[in-house]
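Quick question about two entries, pasted in order.
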Amino acid sequence: MAAPPKITRVRNIGIVAHIDAGKTTVSERFLFQSGRIHKIGEVHDGEAQMDWMPQERERGITITAAATSFAWQGHEIHLIDTPGHVDFTIEVERSLRVLDGAVVVFDGVSGVEPQSETVWRQADKFHVPRIAFINKMDRAGADFPGAVEEIRTRLGARPIPIQLPIGAEERFTGVVDLVRERALTFSGDESEPPQEGPIPAAMAAEAQAARDKLIEAAADFDDAVANAFLEGQPIDPLALVAALRRGTIACSIVPVLAGAALRNKGVQPLLDAVCAYLPSPLDVPPIKGTNPVNGETVSCPPEDTAPLAALAFKVAMDEGRKAVYLRVYSGVLKAGDEVQNARTRRNEKVARLFSVHANRRERIERSGAGNIVVAMGLRDAGTGDTICSPRAPVLLERIDIYEPVIARAIEPKTQAEKEKLDFGLGKLADEDPTFRFGEDAETGQMIIRGMGELHLDIIVDRLRREYGVEANVGRPQVVHRETLARPADGEARFERTVDDETLFGHARVHVAPRPRRAGNQLRLAIVKPPVAPNAPKIPETPQAILDAAVEGAREAMRSGPQGFPIEDIEVVITGIEYRPDASNIAGEKAAVGEALRQAVREAGTRLLEPIMRVEVTCPETNVGDVLGDLNARRAQIEDVGFRGQQRVIVAKIPLRRMFGYSTDLRSATQGRATYSMQFETFDAWE
């Protein structure tokens, strides 16, 4: 019997969670247990392998998604450790886009936190199978059943514990393996494997009830397991694992494990679960793309013999040279290959290929389907680009990009550094699609835009360290949007002679506001005027003129009268005058753009500002102070509840009211309260 192909033992996984849940600590233990590193680096000591940037080590947080590879029990695991802070959510988004599975880490004390919900929704969006790890079970207030219930209620998932913790808080010593019906105890020594033994007698009834629920879940995916359960027959653990694996890969269930990664408890069983329950590239449906030449749908099977198809999901600068992180979906990529960027339709040569471990790279000559690698030499590649074979072009779905919500003015401390500033900003924008920069048309100032104060602080710090630019930075400013106040119509005629060529266009446009978060809508609904019975027939408007009209409207929608992007409007092009002797693309484009601008000015616009969802956790004694401060900031309080012994306040509040909140909250609560904030929507706020 032939051995299964190597790709069946490949796992492309991510570690995702809310900030401070223990993602990087879990990643470090994975690397140590697999033998990839020989000394565990702790986040709180600034020595974690996966937090390699100076800014990460100083702050004790993950800023950029770090990739690594290691082996475990005959499996090849490609792992990405992602940030938990909302300012760097694009790192999670683009990582989940190319991963086959994820380990979601939850704080055993805090349960499901705001960024936990965000990353869960991102995983739902890409149909990524997950296993959950309830971490910090050794901490005071750890509550395994409570965390599992929150996964069920707040995330709408179906969590199935495959382990139960033995003890909690300082008495947490191990877990009950419900699949094999054994107890695993941990000494806390990172080099010692768990000790197996019988289930403690005091937990026998609880473990049996939990195992029955596990078998019920597995029975939904395996008839043999269902029949054995109904007939009271013993169930083979391998059959149970296979059934749970099918349910996990279908995103129908979420196996739940417990541990305390910092104390080296529960890490090896979690690694075993990654191999047992998360999919290989063969277990997920082949990714589909579009042929950019004829628009046909193309399937990209995970086979080395198929044409090359890879997605560039991250760009990093390596001493001024662009390093492109690729997920190879189909085919083989070799150093020296000529490949095509499906977005630009230009060919480039792969200079070198690397496997990656955080910021250290190991040179390789080829990479097969299912792998994550770094390529050098792709000068034009950006986040979301498809790298494919020139003989079989394919365009994969791009990665969604989040729009910035905060802006700051920046200028070099000396004019001599202006060129270095522009160069550095350009390189950082290449790396980070949520970072934008440009000159303000009215003031001439250079404006940088990002996802939050921390995001822009990191950008300025990197400019100083990596590009030697000392810069002065202004106060944070909120980025706004515009929307229409009422419906309106506009009409414009454009006629001009340039170099003996007449440019002509004439268009009518109708605009109207749409509901909040409905997005923009642009369509053609040209009303032809009535024609007398004996009048000459009006010629049909060519498709090129109609396309130019749509493009002219799309360009004009990018900025409203107050200089901000326009949101939630409907634009209908109701009339185009076509004259065969004079109408042309440039003239029609200009006419539609001017008609749209007239209609928007006539309708008037309202400013929309970023509204944030804020969650404050504080002791009971501080609830009044926190609520009073939030009300003073014009917050809309949505909920005041409990999480363990702490009170949790959920509110919506304009971003402009949140500047300096961290300092004010610490002052009002003597440092006993914490908060998290994430972008909710753009809206008008009184």
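Here is the second entry:
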Amino acid sequence: MNRKTNLLGILCLVIFLFTSYYSSAVIVTGKVIDTLKRPVAYASVYIKGTTKGTTTNENGIYSLDLAAGQYVLVFRMMGYTSYSAPISVNNDKVILNVTLHDETMQLKEVTIKAGEDPAYNMIRQAIKMRKHYKEQVNAYSCNVYIKGIQRITKHPEKLLGQDISNDMLGLIDTSNIIYLSESVSKFNFKQPDKIKEEMISSKVSGDNQAFSYNSASDMLFDFYESVMQIGGLSERGFISPIAPDAMLYYKYRLDGTYQENGNTVDKIQVIGRRKNDPVFRGYIYLEESGWRIYGTNLYLTKDAQIDFVDTLVINQTFVPVTNDIWMPVTNKFMFHFGALGFKGAGLYVGVNADYNVAPDFPKRYFGAEDLKIDTDANKKDTLYWHETRPVPLTIEEVNDYRKRDSIMAIRKSKKYLDSVDKKTNKFKPLGLFVTGYNYHDRYKKQNISFSAVLQSIQYNTVEGLRVGEKVSFSQELEHHREYSITPSAYYGFSDHRLNGGLGYYYNYKPEKFSSISVNVGRSAEQFNQVHPYSYIFNEVYTLLEKQNFMKLYQSDFINVKHSMELINGVQFTTSLKYESRSPLMNTDNFSLVKINRDFSSNDPQGLAPDGVPSFNPNKALLFDANFKINFAQHYYTRPYEKIIEGSKYPALNLYYKKGIAGVIGSNVNYDYVQASVDGKINMKMIGNSNWTVTAGKFLNNKDMYFMDYYHFQGNQTIFTNSGGFELLPYYKYSTNGQFVQANFEHHFGGLILNKFPLIRKLKLSEIAGVNYLTTNTLNQYGEFYVGVEKLHAFRVIFVSGFAEGQKTYATFRFGISSQGGVVSVR
């Protein structure tokens, strides 16, 4: 192993010496090893008294671009004694190989409480200084280099009956790399949370048109925060080892104290008091003169109830920027994951350099745009990266770039893409029946898709057996623009009606979320335009329970819709729809079971008996407009693309709908207004809450039909209705007056169930919620539910409802959840 590793290290060193020969810069390079001749990966290498530096790569190789002069290089790695070496740089290349020795620890004399490890007092001192260091630097700027690499170390031969090949996963030869990227950014920060980052250069292996998803803000692991939120890993945050209440969650042990560059450093092991608390494990290093963080080697495991990954390791190295200000110069996080037979790992290393802790930012320098990727960021040449890249590439990474870049042109050629299409476009009758069929022309960026026959076979009491097909043609254009054309046709064998339509959609300015769509056709529509009742549920209840909850009417329509972002955070959507509406009645009563129950009338109000129309045919010209306002919305921009990050403030929706009378024979005349507010509450260790409050009122209801009423998202099935009501009948409380609706749901993230050994292995999260409604005809209606969910998706809840102060009934609901409340507009 050592012989192979040394050979790779020599080859890496030769590569960098060769490339530096053709560069005018002076290169200081070498290899860092330990006393057993093993390479020390990702050690920090920086110039003493500055934050200019780099890290070693996986093979212990480092490279620094320096001007002529005298320097002292410092080599640091947690677990080793740091090493300082004076060097003289002139016009010749400098090769400096370094051996790091294991930390030489000593236990010093300290005054301690009886039976207490001296680490506890050290942590108390750090806790006292936590707030000071968190707020010490009001603003700063720095340059950030990030390299990200992800690997698949094991994968199954088949998944869901499909062969899984290396080519399918994007693996090349024997390498297990699936993603390799680098980026260089200018990062700016101002208290308390203002960020502005510009990505100057970006490189993605195998695609010179792509932009890296690296972000310096994603590397901001701040253990001076009491609770650290790591997006995607848990509903709850993770407690810092130096949080004010950390001693309730951690035990500490002093492994030793050592001297380094004139600093006294304490190496303290942090241990969770309880196995399954959301805490870190590993080591934190404290510098005694100021009781500040000197470095970290901390990790999270599945025991902390993290999702999607098995282990997350966070390493940091801090150095002095001024006499009293220390900042991180390297941030590294590694993770391991495994699911469905796949195993892999990822590594991201960030090098921060050229700190300015007293920047003079102009007024209004910080705004809503947190990150901007320059249009030419992916156009930097090889020479640029040789001169800019602070972390040398390994042989494996060099090969990955070379091989992927060399085959990129081939894989984008018409010949290659046509050969791939020829293989994937093979028609399989069973596939068309179950999953549908897609025909790709990758070279022209076109796609034709046919819906699955099985999905198009439906049954309801109005149309009977319903069979049809939907075809979609889509075309990708330059700068992320695209359009699609979608024809469809469906036939009901019981009512002998042919329905269908033609839709056109054009996304003409993605960076402004600007699109236009036109739809024309005939369909059997639910009276509730939000479609709260799915076709599959309707089939289950119709065929097995003889319950036809879905209520339909005939709609012949043409609808034109336009949407665009007016200014950041304000999305405006408007539509004009003309609709000819006719009543439908039950024409079939087939059921798979014999139950002494008759199907109900297709009248949602239950006023018209079966076989009698529920309303007179009418026409409607409908105009609506919706403003969705996300206050102080933050985002980042990629060339011709805008990615929304969200806002810490609630979002406001303002909606208006007008039924226009007397135009093109329209029989309706009403005005409806609606306002809704929805948001999230981060309760850190307790979890996260989603809430929505909606109020609506018909200012004018002179001429209306039941489909024009406001209908609530009810539920009369055993399946959960996340975001809506769980027990409310579908149409019983529909209104043409006014209403107020509120929905609240909290996700505890395992706060309670984590305490039970057998249950916590299931990694379930507790949920609880309240739904409330009042209308002009319903004084009070409420629901309360509690339950559990898995991975924010599958859930089981127990719900109890109350109407007019009287308990209705309580029952279980199960199914798939949807995070966040539902804001419906009509």
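Reply: Confidence is low (pLDDT under 50) at residues 1-24, 819-826. The longest strand covers residues 139-154. Hope that helps.
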